[in-house]
Amino acid sequence: MRSKSFLLLHIALLPLYITLAFYLDLIPQPIVLNLSGLLRLSKANLLKHRIFAAPLSLYSASISNEAANMSSLKYIPRRSEERGNADHGWLKTFHTFSFAMYQDYNHEQYGPLRVINEDRVAPRTGFGTHSHREFEIFSYVVAGELEHKDSMGNTEILKRGALQLTSAGTGISHSEKAHGSSQVHFLQIWSVPSTPRLQPKYYTRQFTDAQKTNNWVRVVAPIDAKGVSDARDAEGPAPVHSALTLYATLLEKGKKLEQPLSGKKGYVHVVQTSGFNPGNAKGATIRVGGELELKEGDGAYVAVGSGGATFVLENMGEQIAEVLLFDLE
């Protein structure tokens, strides 16, 4: 009995052991990422023995398994009011996935997609210099101006329509602050590259409202995809080293769009353009797949059949809807 308790104690500490090894560079990141299944197993075993209780409906795994035998898209909504959120005064933020003090085993990662934070930063405040490595981090500016500075020597003021992407690779430091007299509203998105220890790189792209109005615009895509440039400033989507493609649109009242999905899964997010609202979602209203209605701040996990399928988006409300669609492996 004593040996069983000793074993269960070490299983409980397994995530801590792996985290320490990761930050001390004792094991490469791909190994850490591939251990996600082992971590989930350890959590399940601990639940069985009542060491701690936590919800473990693993969306990524369940959707992928369900999709294997499907020919049409299926959706699991992620409602805005269910996201993690915080109001720090200078920062008002939402977290779609576990981040900082918000932790939810149901919403940790989806394919290579690790973070979707919707941030509003007050004027002349922001995130001071801090470090990243391995993740590829992109900022999608909705309103205001975002000032970016980094250890690679890049300094830039990003305005609405800008897409800035940093491939952190072996390590970078940067700061992000609201520039000027207005708050900045942007989405910061992190993806996990399929190749570890990349050379850090910086990219910016600009996409106009006119381009996105009633059209899907590819703003991020795999580096080896057609039409993708590895140049710092270029036309077309910013490059990532993972099976992730991000589309953006501004969909007007009564309009409908379709987009074939080539990956095994997808995620859709409606930008909360009408203002910070931690309560029930309001504002622009869309319908996906002819069945699920989403409002500002809402999102949905999308299961794609093995043969691929077409994502259908309709604007059912009175306001223009700004929508992001991720096509993922």
From TrEMBL:
Residues 83-190 form the Pirin N-terminal domain. Transmembrane segments: none annotated. It comes from the Eukaryota. Belongs to the pirin family. This is Pirin N-terminal domain-containing protein. It comes from Hypsizygus marmoreus.
